């Protein structure tokens, strides 16, 4: 890396299944790198080597501070960054220092917790902070689709409450490991089947386990297309979630952090309820949040 | 096998994960055998060798008819035994003959199908027929707990309608493969947590995906015992199922086919709704059904 591109700090988004790093000059990305060394496959002693393998070149001119968010700060991660209880701002200037060698400074952002209903987040608090930086003064509800989708109520710059749904993980388990896998693997997406399933699940969420088997039976008896079954599976899960999350989105200013298939599915399901949700790039929000954390903690580094 | 114990026919219960065979003299079991050669691990050409490996000794005195039920009759099984559409009696004298060598006669019982809502069963129809043989003239609702739990409405000796719930498979997937696995593996069963979760899910079935994550979060934040989390997971799934199956069990004569942990959980959940369900041994019902099939088809063998 030539000198004019040398970073003054490094942003790291380290989740269960991914590791993404960004060489930063202030708020500007000068280089990016990623690997599959997610927290889920690493033991505590593996984190520093995994990070150095990815960003070693960027440190050739000397160590620069690293700010990391995500599951890297969990009990099974590099260092446990304690949860901060809501209601609170998504970030503070208190970060947790990871154990390192040779002068490398790695600070990990704390997750958020909620006592009742019991809930936790790690990584999303950084996206929420980034979203607030990009949309100053915004009040309303954020939906962060993912393996564990989060609904977050924001007011006056604080996270008031949040709720996590395992819908994304259920979709993955059911479509890859259940008897339904024979019926949902394939191409295409039937928007009508998705909408009908959302509506059905919002009216009768108790029927989920029966509707799931019925998708398999309909395929056996009538040869349903995979594009129909897969969209219906997604619709059943998202519909049930929207029914439960109604106190979050009903009559609220709503935004979705994400731009992929799953985020578009949430947007379309919300639109059918008369809610027009803004969509925001989640990587941009993550980087804005990591930058905010860097700037607020710079004085202490 | 000495001559006085030589069977005059052989009963076979062949599911996705198990193969159970019974040497029969009329309605009496004279010997039993089982293996792990379930349908799920066999190709079509593997079925006859798998069966002979298990019951070869019983055929030493000559071939006797074999009557089989279960997934052995599915499209991925030994021979596809076509579905019979409800409403209909659980059994007829029309069985499907499997392709065999050396004069072995294997006949497979047909499954049942329902057009709308789309649904199928294979194996349970034999248990239902056996239950009716053991309880002549019985009208009401049968619950058959399993990977895919069935609720079956019986009237005047016919299956009027039925509904399958994937709750058992969801329990297995979530407890073994999801993020919740860290919180539910262990010993014990907290009956209070089960009852509270049943009640919660019956009132708010739409909250399932959030309640599931909350079990994990409560463990992370408060160190919940696995006996509590696992019973609550079961209660959330069974509670949602009871809410959807209410038209089946409400005000009906109800029986549960099964004697294990899962069957007791259904019984306890139904009792909390004021329904006292009779429990019947499912192996006994399977054997009675296979015997009924043998007797009604004997003339054609």
From TrEMBL, chains A, B:
Which EC main class describes this enzyme? Answer: transferase
Q: Does the keyword Transferase apply?
A: yes
Domain of life of the organism encoding this protein = Bacteria
Query: What molecular function does GO assign, one term?
Result: 2-dehydro-3-deoxygalactonokinase activity
Q: Does the keyword Glycosyltransferase apply?
A: no
EC number in record: 2.7.1.58
Keyword annotations for this protein, in alphabetical order, are: Transferase
Name of the protein = 2-dehydro-3-deoxygalactonokinase DgoK1
Task: Say which species the protein is native to.
Answer: Roseobacter fucihabitans
Q: What is the lineage of its organism?
A: Bacteria, Pseudomonadati, Pseudomonadota, Alphaproteobacteria, Rhodobacterales
